[in-house]
Automatic annotation (TrEMBL):
Entry's transmembrane regions: none
One Pfam family here: Aminotran_3
Keyword field contains DNA repair: no
Name of the protein in its database record: Aspartate aminotransferase family protein
Presence of keyword Transmembrane: no
Similarity-based family: Belongs to the class-III pyridoxal-phosphate-dependent aminotransferase family.
GO molecular function, one term: transaminase activity
Amino acid sequence: TVGEALSGEEAVELAKRHLVQPWPTAGEIGAEARSLIGEGEGIYITDGSGKKLIDGPAGMWCTNVGHRREELARVMYDQAMQLSYNTPWYTMNEASAVLAERIAGHAPGDLSHVFFTTGGSSAVESALRFMQFYNNVRGRTEKKLILSRGGAYHGSTYLSASLNGRPRDRDWMDGADDLVVKLSSPDPFRRPAGMSIAAFTDSLVAEFEETVKRIGADKIGAFVGEPVQASGGVIVPPENYLPRIRKICRDNDILYVSDEVVTAFGRLGHVFASEDVFGIDPDIITFAKGVTSGYFPLGGMIVSERLLQELRRSNHPSAMYAHGLTYSSHPVGCAVALKNLDLLEGGILAHARAVAPYFQAQLKTLEELPLVGEVRGVGLMACVECVADRDSKNPLELDRNVGMRIDAHCHELGLLVRPLINMCVMSPPLTITKEQIDDMVGILREGIS
Ligand code: PLP
């Protein structure tokens, strides 16, 4: 491939000496030995020792159409040979315009325009900076607070990371805490004991309403929420909760930002899940990952026509949305995203919808295992949560991160798992077949046992 042909061990050694990898602990930073992945094909990847593994998390919820798609590789080559890059500051390229139109065509409500970024964090960051700009131009300079929730994950840039809800992600990092207000995670598994789902939903909506009332809608610019909290452990919200939050936002002139970085482009069997699965039409949708199935770093936000019109008609026509990335609207990324969308529309979305019930039902059988407190999910995303005991629902804590131990066992058996402390998240490529689901669940069962 690239550079010298190294053995698996040599590559890992080199990384230990020279690579800082994402999310390291202080004790291991710059000295970590992570599994080398050498190749991918379909739903499989191959590790440094040549072992073939099912790619359980599809990379990071992203390799939606699977690995080694020749048509995607070819379109990147062709685009790079035609035009590898152009400045988005004062020129544009055809692929980005065509892709924006295709994406807007799938987006709910009046979401009509796309701003492309390099990934999910920059998409969320762009949406938040857009909210600030929008309210500044409207003269609502106090309307800047952002509502977020426990269990949320929105990125690793300063402002997007400030929204993150899991304590572990925040404990050792600073953030823009004065700009963010945290609400409860809509997690039915951890609702107060004895409370019905309906009462739980009412309590979440009441908390939202009371927070808006207490702080004042004139101080709150946006709510940012994942339709399904992904990294938080695939938290599927109770029915009708999101539409009720959407209504409160609309009534209070609070922008609803639906963070679909994980859920868009097929994970739930649709291009976007906000409306098709959850019945909401946000003001802004953020996306990344599946837009190129991970073949190229690309993300973006889709903005409502109404908001753009308000800005165009404002009293400050020369005010500048001083925000843009060198790689906004990258032609190679946009070209591969177009081909990826062809594949999704050409049958993969329908396949994902068809196999999702089987995927969920087979994983659900793992609840028979004594360590497993709950298996939950929707579409082709699911979480197996291990608990100390089912009554307390306390997360299972062993000498080492339980998810990592399960991952290690499964790795030996031929499956890569995404370990999340006491949870294993499963979100394979959308092309997975029923037989491959059987293999995946069989290995997971044995690994957990
Ligand atoms: N938003 C959500 C919901 C995510 O799950 C992620 C990443 O996992 C992000 C934003 C950040 O995306 P990226 O890692 O591409 O910056």
